[in-house]
Amino acid sequence: MPLTPAIEEPQIHESAQGPRVTPAASRTAQTPRPVPGPRPAAVPRPGRPGPARPAPPAQRAPQATSGPVPAAPAAAPTAPSVSAAVPQIQLIPASAEGALDAAEEAVDLLLDTGRAPGDILVLTSGDPHPWAAHELSFGEAAYWALHDAGDDVFYADAAQVQRAADRPVVVFAANGGAVDTIVGALPVALTRAGALLIVCGDPQQINSVLGAGV
Q: Is 116 exposed, middle or buried (0-12, 13-18, 19+ CB in 10 A)?
């Protein structure tokens, strides 16, 4: 009697199965994270040639004409971009007691995302940042010399914002102090910010100074 060959059941290989999805660990946001401001375009790394450029088309000799040559039309003037000159504004809600901590977290995130330390100016409306208090102990001249060097994050009193130079990013911590100081310093801080102004404080107070659109 002939033997019937056993039918092998098809095997499912692991490669045919769908990708395994590992659930990401949940993370509770403690403080709203700031969005880094615009960054300069990436510079190509040295030693890496760019894409080959097509050869220019062959030039043809101009043909002689008997009549006058028409003049080329003048190029229409282009208006400057308004959006490029207006910095972005970001509000991080925080109490007066937590505004400085929120500003510190914003600075850390900016540095982690590639901002240079010299791009950042931090202003405080209430108690000075510990770094500023320490550096001021060596005298005003040495303190502002660090500001003029422009190679590190600089912390200053919001009341002295007029003396501070422009920087790409300004972080304003509304950590108390006189209301008049905040009202007077915030608009100036906006003019000092080249790309981004981050304000940490009471949203209602900030909106009343900079406008409801913040």
A: middle
Return d(Cα 65, Cα 72) in angstroms, integer: 16
- Cα–Cα distance measured from residue 118 to residue 129, given in angstroms and rounded to the nearest whole number: 17
Q: Is the pTM for the entire model greater than 0.90? A: no
pLDDT 10s digit of each residue in the chain, 214 long? 454 555 454 554 444 444 444 444 444 444 455 544 544 443 333 333 444 444 444 444 445 445 554 454 444 444 444 444 689 999 999 999 999 999 999 999 999 999 999 999 999 999 999 999 999 999 999 999 999 999 999 999 999 999 999 999 999 999 999 999 999 999 999 999 999 999 999 999 999 888 754 5
SS3 at position 39: coil
- What is the full DSSP assignment across 110-158? HHHTT--GGGEEEEESSSPPHHHHHHHTT-HHHHHHHHHH-SS-EEEEG
Please say whether the beta carbons of 185 and 159 come within 8 A. yes
Pairing of strands 88-93, 193-201: parallel
